[in-house]
Amino acid sequence: MTNGQWVRPDYSAQKIATWPQRLSERGYETAAIGKMHFYPWMERMGFDYKSVTEDKRWPHIRDDYYHFLRRNGSRKYTGLEHKDYQKNKGAVISCNPWELSWDHFVGEEAASYLERLDGSAPFAMMVGFTGPHCPYDPNTEFVESIDEEKIPEPVEGNSKDCPGVKIKNHAANRQRWNGIELDGWTREQKRRVRRHYAGLVQQIDHEVGRILQVLENKGQLDNTLVIFSSDHGDYVGDHDMAGKGSFYEGSCHIPMIVCEPGRHSPAVCDDLVELTDITSTILVSAGCDLPNCLDSIPLPGIGVGRKNGTEFPQRDCVIGAVADGCMYFDGTWKYAKYATGEMVLFNLDEDPEESRNLVRDPAHVERLIACENALNTRYFDLMFAGHRDKVVDGDNSLWSDRAFGKEGYRRTYPQPW
Fold this sequence. Notes:
single chain, Alkaline Phosphatase, subunit A, Arylsulfatase, C-terminal domain, four-stranded antiparallel sheet, three-stranded parallel sheet, 11 strands
């Protein structure tokens, strides 16, 4: 539930396979390019090829981007090294020119990998861009092209909702990785941050276009499943916060665009999905069987969402969890509670800006209880599943197992699902 949690280092010995390993067994060439958050960062995690450009918060990692900058007489810069960083709440112009920027390097590495492929085997590539993240440091040309009129105003919300969550957000932003004081920031400062964030998004648009162009040039675009998503959003001033970490829309509602081979007309799917559903989508599209331990369902509305002509079951709700909070969302009603003791209940159909917290409204007591019950039911299942590998007697069979009663018995680990 944090960036610091990772798969155990002896995962292979414990018969745990990553999705690139499973695809390799099906004859795929696999690559991971860009931001990975692997621990240690140089781990391959089953990928055949890796080019790493780690997070802006890890300036001292000697990854592929570090060596690229060194060869070109430059280095990584932290946010605090930029002019007017504090004054502009992290909205600055990158110290490195575009040709040496984080996202341009990632895009070039991805394009170069595709250009080297000879087509003798199918491929699977994961590309992670670091850009839309504090510090908000696009290059000048991508900021100047932003149409100010198209940038929405920050969501004001309700200043009385979750003051503890906001205090924690401001305190987190003061830490060394960011070093920004958000108390009292102005509308103009928020607008600048949002403009620079939009500039970072445009930089990714540019590089994604470059990757798709290479696929088209190689005649593979109509033969490739492309999934565009993110791991989190950014408040960029919404509810007077920056970054992410709660279940307000700006933080947890992320983009999801799928380009499916053979589909030439656009369509919109409003079904509930989670980021984890990408994993099963990749596996099914590559012809892999889904491990029964996965809490992941292939994305609906596309060809891989069917098995033997039948649609996979779909979600009736989304459960979210971070280190200090959890959420239930059914597509209309969002209920979240935090370690601060604070709770919110929003009807997103009627209140998309989450400014009317109904958790104490007597007219919605039954709805609140229903959401709490639904969250608890699923949450306790997930907590148990999260520790399933450590269970000694998964199917209550040890009482009749003669081997268990003998000296020298060794338990099964991890316990299979």
